Structure formats: structure tokens, C-alpha cells
Amino acid sequence: MNDSSASASSDVAHTLLNDTFLRALLRQPTDYTPIWLMRQAGRYLPEYNATRARAGSFLGLAKNPDYATEVTLQPLERFPLDAAILFSDILTVPDAMGLGLNFVQGEGPRFERTVRTEDDVKRLAVPDIDATLRYVTDAVSQIRRALTDAQGRQKVPLIGFSGSPWTLACYMVEGGGSDDHRTVKSMAYARPDLMHRILEVNAQAVIAYLNAQIEAGAQAVMIFDTWGGALADGAYQRFSLDYIAKVVAGLKREHDGVRVPVITFTKGGGLWLEEIAATGVDAVGLDWTVNLGRAREKVGARVALQGNIDPSVLFAPPAAIRTEARAVLDSFGNHPGHVFNLGHGISQFTPPEHVAELVDEVHRHSRAIRAR
């Protein structure tokens, strides 16, 4: 088999020059293990920093489809990655709800208004996606065009994404990032009625948002449950997983006759691997604390797995990076259904040349594994 559009099944877009990523998500055989990196368009790249400087701010970058397209494509111009991911931010949804998102230098995201009182919760509503988040769907469409050549052949697939209902709620209640999530977890335990109302609105908003991205051209979508692992067992299921399952059930799983795979990633979610796999997703993202081989034995017949090298490995010398990449690939073994990724987002301090070493070794060694 080859990875050209000529070999594509009915489940995968026929115009793709490289459909390896989508095939892996659907647990179909591939010639090698595809790789993309969470936060692959970001501050570790000097060209990204130059574009961000032209945009004037992070939001100026994210809310301008031209800039968003430019930075989405930058890592693909440097590295032979197997997927592009929309450049945006998970907090665009609560911003569209009128909470007033700002990024403070050295502090990260901040909202002008929080959602903490009964009145705050009562006012919360699913935003009109076309009216408030058109810049995102316009960027998706523009990126798809930029990935496509004059013959209508697309270089690699495009991933859309959203934060999970719980992760969005963490920022909305806390007003920004938090070390202990004290305010949002206190609400969950003391006023679960309010928390469930927030999560229900968020779930419906995420469904509408991801479906709009799919309609605009996203060929796979990912749900980032960054703070699910901050919850206790039991609370995780009630306040995070149940709403992820609701989102997955509401998504368009096919567009223009082609399957649209869904990935979910709970940082710190290894404890709940089998439950996450049961939500109906096509793939489960794993952080670096999970043994990939054992994870495959547990759920590999049901879902693909994405991950899961420690991002800090990219600060090691090239030989060590290649050794660790081989260890991850060998752990999964010669089986369908693996997308190589980091166990979390790439650090802004990562040397770009080390990323090149990782991508090369993943492609090289996985081809060697297939040839055995």
C-alpha cells in the first residue's frame, strides 16, 4: 500500500496527497506512523514570533484569518508533519459568550467577567457561532484552500478543535488559569446545579462550534480536556466525561461523504482510559504518564491512540530524542491505530532543530517496524 490518494478508502478524503493521519485515526493500515505536535504552531518557531509581532497581540493573530492561516502553515513548511491544526485558542468560545477575553503578558488568559453567581449562570447562553466566531470558520476554509494545490490535491488533513465543557468552565469560573482550581471545584461540590447548567451550555456551544468547523472544512476534530485530570474519580465522570460524551454524540461524523474522526485528550486521564474510549471517539490522546503498550492492549481494538512522548525529551541531545522516539513506537508495536504526538503541548523553549530530529526518527523507525 502507498499513502497517496489513489489508495484512499471511502472513509478518507480522496483528494489528500497524504492521508496517513486520517487512516491511523480510523485504525487502517499505514506505511508509517503519522506525527503532528500539540501546539506545533507556536512560540518555539521564530517565524511564528515574527508574525505575532506583526499582528500586535495574540488575539490579533488568532482573530485574523490571514494571520491564522500563515502560522498554521509555518510548521508544515519546516517539518514533514502529517497534519495541520487550526491556529486558534480554546477560549474563543467563552469569549464569544461575552466574557471579555484578554491575554496579559506573563499571566496568560484573563476574562473581564466570571461566571460564579446564579445570575451569571442564568445569563449564560450558547453563542451564535456565525455571528461571533466567523473568524474561526473563515480561517478553517482559508487554511484548506492554502493546503490545496492547483490540481485540487491537499497536502495533509486539517484538524479543528475546541476545549472540553469542563476545561472551558474552569477558565470561566476562575477568570483565568489556576494552580488549584479552587473556585470552580468548590462550585462543583457546593452547587452542582449551577455547574451542570454551565456545562450543559458549554456542551451545546462546543457541539455547534465543532460542527461549524467541520462544515468549513476541518477533516478531524479534537476535544482538549486540559483540566479533566484535576478532578477526583467520580467527579471526573460527572463533570467532565459525561459532557465530552454528549459533545461526541452531537457531532457530525461525516461531511461530504467522508468520515470525520474525533479525538479527545484528557491531561492526567490515564486512570479513565477505558471510560474515555467508550464515549464514542475514534481516538484517545494520552499524556506521557501512560504506558502506551498497555494502553493499546486495553483499548486498541476499539479506538486509535495518540501520543505520548514527554515534551521535555525535546530538550535532550538528538541521539537521546531518537532513542526515546523509538521507545514509544516500539511500545505500541506493529499495529494499526497510532498517531505519534507529544504527551502535552510543545514548550516555547524547544529548539526547532530538535523537532526535526523527532519527526525524522518517527517516520524512519516506524517504516522499519512495518518492514519487519
TrEMBL record:
Which UniProt keywords are listed?
Answer: Cytoplasm, Decarboxylase, Lyase, Porphyrin biosynthesis
Task: Please cite one Gene Ontology biological process associated with this protein.
Answer: protoporphyrinogen IX biosynthetic process from glutamate
Lyase as a keyword of this entry, yes or no, is yes
Top-level EC class, please?
lyase
Q: Which GO terms describe its molecular function?
A: uroporphyrinogen decarboxylase activity
Write the Enzyme Commission number(s) for this entry: 4.1.1.37
Its catalytic activity? uroporphyrinogen III + 4 H(+) = coproporphyrinogen III + 4 CO2
Q: Where is this site: Transition state stabilizer?
A: D89
Gene3D superfamilies reported in the protein's UniProt record: 3.20.20.210
Q: Where is the Uroporphyrinogen decarboxylase (URO-D) domain?
A: 34-43, 159-175
Q: What is this protein identified as?
A: Uroporphyrinogen decarboxylase
Q: Tell me the organism.
A: Caballeronia insecticola
